[in-house]
Design brief:
The protein is mainly alpha-helical. Helix content is 51%, strand content 8%.
């Protein structure tokens, strides 16, 4: 049995969804929940599932809706459902494969046991994934010293550089916790600008030490008229 090509399979089933007028967003959500669990189990021929877990992943609250969508996906050739007769055991689902070679039509579906070899696609996918990973690494500093050197070139302190590095290292070099940083030097410049703004605001909001009541000295003789 050949390995499932994650990207090719996902692209294939999404293309089939686009051409299938019966598919709704709920069908897509349920299928992707199955796909996520299938991926976690390293793409076996059959996966044993807990309906509550699948419903939680698919954001489906009604068990009636869940079974209707599952029946649709089965009838339309996206998977094969084997219900369990024992309450102690989960039901089995056989996922059909869509990571077909480019020269095959995308409307052909078949179980894993009949899948043609896709080693060339896997090799291509590994090369593509390696390129993506390397691109991401190049957008982040190699280590803390690289950041310190950059900050010193901008006449900034090592302490500020360490704060910047530790902060973004702790959140995986992402903006707002979601999007990967594509240029850490630009992010560092924004950090510096923000730090300057904070210092400027603090200086502006700090009361003058020379100011006192009525602009008089603290030794004023209040027996004298103002």
């Amino acid at each position: 049995m050949s390995d499932v090509n994650y990207i090719s399979h996902l692209n294939g089933v999404l293309r089939k969804f686009a051409d299938d007028e019966n598919i709704t967003s709920s069908h897509r959500s349920l299928y992707l929940a199955f796909f996520e669990l299938w991926n976690q189990k390293h793409f076996p021929k059959n996966i044993m599932l807990n309906s509550k877990q699948v419903m939680a992943l698919a954001k489906i609250r009604s068990r009636t809706t869940y079974h209707k969508l599952l029946r649709d996906l089965t009838n339309w050739g996206y998977l094969k459902y084997h219900p369990s007769t024992s309450p102690q055991m989960g039901s089995l689902v056989e996922m059909f494969r869509f990571d077909t070679p480019p020269d095959q039509k995308m409307d052909r579906t078949y179980p894993i046991s009949e899948q043609a070899p896709v080693q060339k696609l896997v090799s291509f996918n590994k090369h593509k994934s390696k390129h993506i990973i390397n691109s991401f690494i190049n957008t982040c500093p190699e280590n803390e010293q690289e950041v310190i050197t950059y900050f010193k070139a901008k006449n900034r302190s090592s302490l500020e550089a360490k704060k910047f590095y530790n902060f973004y290292e702790s959140i995986g070099w992402k903006l707002n916790g979601k999007n990967p940083i594509t240029n850490w030097q630009a992010c560092a410049k924004n950090w510096m600008l923000k730090a300057d703004e904070i210092k400027k605001d603090e200086k502006f909001n700090t009361p003058s030490q020379k100011r006192n009541n009525l602009h008089t000295s603290r030794n004023k003789n209040y027996g004298e008229p103002l």
